[in-house]
Task: structure prediction
Amino acid sequence: MDKSYTGKAYRWNRENYSSRRRYLDIWSFVLTLMFRLWLYNRSWSYSGGPTEVKKAARRKAQAIWIRNTLLDLGPTFIKIGQLFSTRADIFPGEYVEELSKLQDKVPAFAYEQVEKIIQQELGKKIPQLFESFEPIPLAAASLGQVHKATLHSGESVVVKVQRPGLKKLFEIDLQILKGIARYFQSHPKWGRGRDWIGIYEECCRILWEEIDYLNEGRNADTFRRNFRTYEWVKVPRVYWRYASPRVLTLEYLPGIKISQYEALEAAGLNRKILARQGAQAYLHQLLNNGFFHADPHPGNIAVSPSGALIFYDFGMMGRIKSNIREGLMETLFGVASKDGDRVVKSLIDLGALAPAEDMGPIRRSIQYMLDHFMDKPFENQSVSAISDDLYEIAYGQPFRFPATFTFVMRAFSTLEGVGKGLDPEFSFMEVAKPYAMQLMTNMNGSQTNTLLDEIGRQAAQVSSTALGLPRQLEDTLDRLERGDVRIRVRSIETERLLRRQTNIQLGMIYAVIISGFTLSASILVKDYIWLALLAGLVATAVSWLLIRLLLRLDRYDRMY
Result:
């Protein structure tokens, strides 16, 4: 257990929670964050003026503050922060980077509470259920903690016990977050192009599923069945006689954490093979089963002494429906053929992209990414680099990536990082290439990389374009008649003159205010010294604003 957290007491680390106190704590965080974001866009808040370096440093500091505050706010916000670490399409890169470091290691709760919960859930006391039960947990997290135990049959197990009062805390927090989501949805700036209510509902579903240990047990059994023919993958068995919504007993499968590279070498295990098997296991989950581990970080994957991969923690799982898989394949074909229009259409069909009146900028961004990346051989591409660029394009655009998509991309990036740590020459794309080729073959009925196939594809594309041209012309004329096509002309010189005129008018208003308050101070100074002083301070403040405005006008004139 991480000792660095044991000395800190959290207000939420109790059984009974105050709704009023939680309301104040949560809204204080939200309002402080909004003020910090407002301050970020104010040039006067930067000493010596804003620069990109200063803005990046401030974003980094804000991200660290957000991460620490989420830890202070407790389990609900720790889990939401971890979920948001997958949403690089919504949040800046610095925020996503810090949230991905968010750890939920917190002080363990007392053994007396563990005894009470187990007796409530399983109907018997610990000595009646287990031959031995270690009072000190193996690990403690925000949702619960894990104890090692031995059954009366002699089998070694681990017992997950949920933190006291967690359900009540979730109910209070999620009710408050619902109001916050509604506020952001109706916000004129932050609500535009973002489905905050949908994100809130998605978080609710995932959180409630994760604190239902029976659901986690069912996930573990399904995952275990999917790998029953793979000797190099091990999944802990669930002991259903000792399971309930708040207690889960699993087979004890110790192993070396997959990120402990020196320990793996000392055990005589082949790191290159482990890197490939980690990628193959995930591709099997994703493409063959459609049921995958949504949080495959190094803490949830270990290696047995025999070299088998051991998976832990099945609270957060993802499912890919057949229609979504077909949509993803359509996107894949669009990427493979560098067809930006096809990619845009498939993303709209998947619900990952909100249709807009002018799709030109989005289509050009996607086409740029395709032209930039697809010149490299498939096996030399990096999942992490592709996802980073994709999210960079998506940020600020009307993209709404489904949770499944973001979980898959984060898992790919995580596994690629683990693979690189195990084997510096590891390429996730090289491992994925046979799977992708097999899928494309199955859907097309034959290989598509021969010369004749390429000529046929090009001919079909040309004929399709030619046949569709009259229809496109007709659609364009219809849009012109309806007024849907808009032409926007921008005159830089006119904009400059208008901006200058606006600033001059603002300066005149400042001058009138200064004159009025200065005159008032002069009249009041004999009889009402404090009122005169107040008027003088207002005049001084407005004078400072006027001087800044004049300096800005002078600088702007010298620029042009």
User: Anything to note?
Assistant: The first strand starts at residue 130 and ends at 133. DSSP finds 20 helices and eleven strands in the chain.
